[in-house]
Design goal:
The complex is a heterodimer of chains A (512) and B (319).
Chain A: H1 35-45, H2 47-69, E1 100-105, H3 107-120, E2 125-133, E3 139-146, E4 153-158, H4 160-173, E5 178-179, H5 192-195, E6 227-228, E7 252-253, E8 256-258, E9 263-268, H6 269-277, H7 294-330, H8 332-347, H9 350-365, H10 367-394, H11 398-405, H12 410-418, H13 423-447, H14 460-468, H15 476-502
Antiparallel strand pairs in A: 1-3, 2-3, 4-9, 5-9, 6-7, 8-9
Helix pairs in contact in A: 1-15, 2-7, 2-15, 7-8, 7-10, 7-13, 7-14, 8-10, 9-10, 10-13, 11-12, 13-14, 13-15, 14-15
Chain B: H1 2-28, H2 41-51, H3 58-72, H4 87-122, H5 127-141, H6 144-158, H7 177-209, H8 213-220, H9 225-254, H10 257-262, H11 268-277, H12 281-309
Helix pairs in contact in B: 1-12, 4-5, 4-7, 4-9, 5-7, 6-7, 7-9, 8-9, 9-12, 11-12
Classes of the chains: A alpha+beta (512), B mainly alpha (319).
């Protein structure tokens, strides 16, 4: 005993303990961190997952918002603006993403494209052409083409009312839409929109013409319009006339020809498109071979794919959770029998399931529900296996025994006490189902086994399949759906991994 | 072990039987597709249909179907496609294309995948690892058909390195160099996924093994890092990696439907797709059997292989 060392402690250092009052435990001042809060904190630490989640959110918003606000629809198939290149209005002045491409063509081809701009000012050829000679001495022209103007002119048949309305629109807005008819409008040319683009004298004016013009000695095109001494021939009363139509020698150009139903008119398609649709043709992702806007189609297809995937995921989750709970909780014979059934279902190749559902159901309930059934048919097995495993892990724990002792029934034990343990795995599984479904859908559509395409519906896989044939000539058709699906798969994988780690408490505090 | 394998094989055949029965019944419930007017062949098919008991109850038809398979291995004739050839002959004719494309791609992908995985594990958390891991993540996630488009566009169309379609069986032998070159785009497109998968698992497994105490012991006893990795770490990592490689090899028969379609390879996948699109149900049944059997069989083989590679693992052992 060495107590004597503390003998000299001053009296003031002592304080009386409060005898009269009770001492309570202090309340914890920090906020409690539950399972989800903990998962959330750890998820946020994983930067790549957060970025992936944001990308997914953007893609989902893209799928929801674009079809609502886009001036284009899936149904709208433009007959002339097919395989038009992507054009972003903001970037076009900088010379990138402006819907132009470089073309190599013969002299005849060059002059044909050049003529469009000469007549209307809507230039199809941009800048100067470079002339090269190949080994045989043939001249080749290399020039930049604006894919929005290469359509040029088309013949349209209008009723009298439509014709008058178009003329009024011309006068109000002071734009030239209707252009004079060429002499050869009756010849059914194979190219040049049935000859609508051949407003000049042709070297060969048979139907097989290549569009090669006869040029005058200054190298200019020689117009080949129908002329008439009647200024209003074809009932053309609009004040808009092209610059060369001066009425020289009392000859005026004819702007329309009467036919049985009304008038055959030659219009500049780009202006006519604006008149018809109320906006400039400008396709951010270009158009496909059917003249549909890829941007809008992609969003609509993505929306369909997302909806399908979420539906499948939710249904699989529900069936899988119930099935897995029963399997895992009861065990024994129930487990063996149920496990056999799910084993057999899981062994059927997915493509066989899809085919059988398609053959049996697609005609009765439509291709989309039949695909949904096919996904659900075997998709829940994985989820059930996960839930079953969790039940096996937790059903022997002491707290379950305690609950049972207190009189909890099977249902309460299963869903109140054991099931919440598997929520983490279920959420991860449900999230990872989504990219799987989208991938399967796109593969199956691409293979032609399912066809979700109708006049107003499209899917990402359908778009990929449509683009395959144009891969060499118009790669943009396939590029955007492919980029979309790649981005989606990458971000869902990163997001899913982050989620899995976040919901796994054993990884808490483990840093890479 | 023998008992376990026997049990698994018995279960496999049971599952196979159930699936085939289900498919058969579901197929027979469909309206019978009309025989195409192909002139002289129509009588053969009608005769064959008679033999196979069309029009009788489904159970009887199934009996005849099973009897034909068990006694003569006769799957019927492809009514809509290849009318004169037996189904199994057509399948065997197509199989080499599928197998060779997948075989080459795995052969090329394995060294690359393993190499990348090992390198990433050794350089863990350095920039090399980050680069490889990111690339692997991307390669693993991006669907194989996207690679196929890229390969087709850049290597076939732009660079002109490879022909776009593969020569048909008459003009080129399967093992000629010309054939190999024309299969190259498909081989490359398939390879990305295998490389990414292998590299991912190798990195994960090896980096875990490398931290083991016995690795420290190996180093203290004087082995260089390379020796220790090759002799001790790789061996243990192989327990996980080797079954994966075996799995990939079994998958080569399965093939890839989508890659075969994109590159017009006349393989089993193409056969399957056309059997669905043309509603040739005899082909459909035979190919369903083929795919289901391979799927089930590779599952068993994979499980058994664990036991062979690592004797400590006893498959199916009781607690």
């Amino acid at each position: 005993m060495q107590n004597n060392e503390y003998m000299s402690i001053p009296k003031e250092a002592f304080e009386f303990a409060p005898v009269g009052e009770k001492i309570y435990d202090k309340k914890l001042e920090t906020k409690p961190i539950g399972y989800f809060k903990d998962a959330w904190i750890r998820f946020c630490k994983n930067k790549s997952s957060v970025v992936a989640a944001i990308i997914i959110l953007i893609l989902v918003l893209f799928a929801i918002i674009v079809p609502i606000f886009s001036p284009y629809t899936v149904e709208h198939r433009d007959g002339y603006y097919k395989t038009v290149l992507p054009k972003a209005e903001l970037l076009a002045p900088l010379g990138i993403w402006d819907g132009t491409y470089t073309k190599s063509d013969t002299r005849a081809g060059y002059l044909y494209y050049n003529s469009i701009g000469v007549e209307s000012g809507r230039n199809a050829v941009i800048g100067e052409a470079k002339v090269n000679k190949d080994s045989d001495g043939n001249e080749y022209y290399t020039f930049k083409v604006d894919s929005y103007n290469t359509v040029g002119y088309v013949f349209v048949n209008l009723t009298q009312n439509e014709y008058i309305a178009l003329q009024n629109y011309q006068d109000e807005n002071e734009v030239q839409i209707i252009y004079p008819m060429p002499e050869n409008y009756k010849t059914n040319y194979t190219i040049g929109n049935a000859g609508a683009n051949f407003w000049y004298k042709l070297k060969n004016d048979k139907a097989t013409s290549t569009g090669e013009p006869v040029l005058d000695k200054d190298g200019n095109y020689i117009p080949n319009y129908i002329t008439s001494s009647n200024k209003d021939r074809g009932d053309y009363t609009s004040k808009m006339r092209i610059a060369t139509d001066t009425g020289e020698n009392g000859k005026w150009f004819a702007y329309a020809v009467k036919n049985q139903t009304g008038y055959k008119v030659r219009v500049l398609y780009r202006e006519y498109y604006i008149y018809k649709n109320g906006h400039e043709p400008s396709f951010l992702f270009g158009t496909n071979a059917y003249g549909q806007d890829i941007f809008t189609c992609l969003a609509a297809g993505a929306r369909l794919s997302f909806l399908l995937a979420v539906f499948v995921s939710v249904i699989n989750l529900t069936i899988g959770a119930l099935y897995g709970s029963v399997e895992g909780y009861y065990g024994g014979a129930v487990d063996i029998i149920l496990e056999r059934i799910s084993d057999i279902l899981a062994s059927v190749p997915f493509i066989v399931v899809v085919t059988l559902f398609k053959l049996h159901l697609a005609d009765k309930v439509g291709p989309l529900p039949s695909l949904l059934f096919a996904f659900v048919m075997t998709g829940w097995v994985g989820m059930a296996a996960r839930v079953r495993l969790q039940f096996y892990r937790f059903k022997g724990h002491e707290y379950i025994l305690a609950a049972r002792t207190l009189g909890a029934k099977d249902g309460r034990l299963m869903f109140k006490h054991i099931f919440p343990n598997s929520i983490g795995t279920i959420i991860t599984g449900a999230v990872l189902t989504i990219p799987g479904v989208i991938f399967s859908e796109s593969s199956l559509s691409y293979l032609g086994i399912i066809n979700l395409e109708t006049s107003s519906l499209t899917s990402v896989g359908t778009m990929l399949a449509q683009g395959q044939g144009y891969l060499q000539t118009y790669p943009h058709i396939i590029l955007f759906p492919a980029v979309f699906i790649s981005l989606l798969e990458i971000s869902f994988n990163l997001f899913g991994n982050g989620l899995r780690d976040a919901f796994n408490p054993s990884l808490r505090g483990v840093e890479e | 072990m023998v008992k376990y394998v026997t049990k698994r094989i018995f279960l496999m055949f049971f599952t196979l039987f159930v699936i085939m029965t289900m498919c058969f019944v579901l197929i027979k419930l469909l309206p019978l597709p009309a025989v195409k007017e192909m002139g002289k062949d129509i009588n053969i098919i009608l005769m064959k249909r008679e033999q196979m008991g069309y029009g009788k109850p489904i159970a009887v038809q199934y009996g005849i179907f099973l009897k034909n398979i068990f006694t003569k291995w006769d799957w019927g004739v492809g009514e809509q496609m290849y009318e004169t050839l037996g189904i199994w002959d057509v399948l065997l004719k197509k199989l080499p294309y599928t197998i060779s494309v997948n075989f080459y791609s795995i052969l090329i992908a394995i060294p690359i995948g393993l190499g990348l995985g090992i390198y990433a594990a050794l350089k863990k958390n350095k920039w090399q690892d980050h680069v490889i891991s990111t690339a692997v993540m991307v390669f693993y996630s991006v669907p194989s058909y996207v690679y196929a488009f890229l390969v087709q566009y850049f290597l076939c169309f732009r660079a002109g390195l490879f022909p776009i379609t593969i020569p048909s069986g008459e003009t080129a032998s399967l093992f000629s160099f010309k054939m190999f070159i024309s299969m190259m785009p498909a081989i490359i497109s398939l390879g990305f996924g295998v490389v990414a998968n292998l590299a991912r698992y190798t990195r994960a497994e090896l980096s875990e093994v490398l931290t083991g105490d016995y690795m420290l012991l190996a180093r203290t006893k004087g082995l260089t890092k390379a020796q220790a990795t090759a002799r001790h770490a790789m061996r243990n990592a192989m327990v996980v990696i080797l079954p994966m490689i075996i799995g990939e090899f079994l998958g080569i028969i399965y093939g890839s439907l989508i890659i075969e379609k994109i590159f017009a390879i006349p393989g089993v996948g193409e056969l399957y797709i056309s059997s669905i699109n043309l509603r040739d149900f005899n082909f459909f049944m035979a190919l369903t059997f083929f795919y289901t059997f391979i799927g089930l069989f590779s599952g068993i083989l994979l499980d058994i292989s664990y036991g062979f590679i690592d004797p400590r693992i006893r498959m199916g052992a009781k607690k």
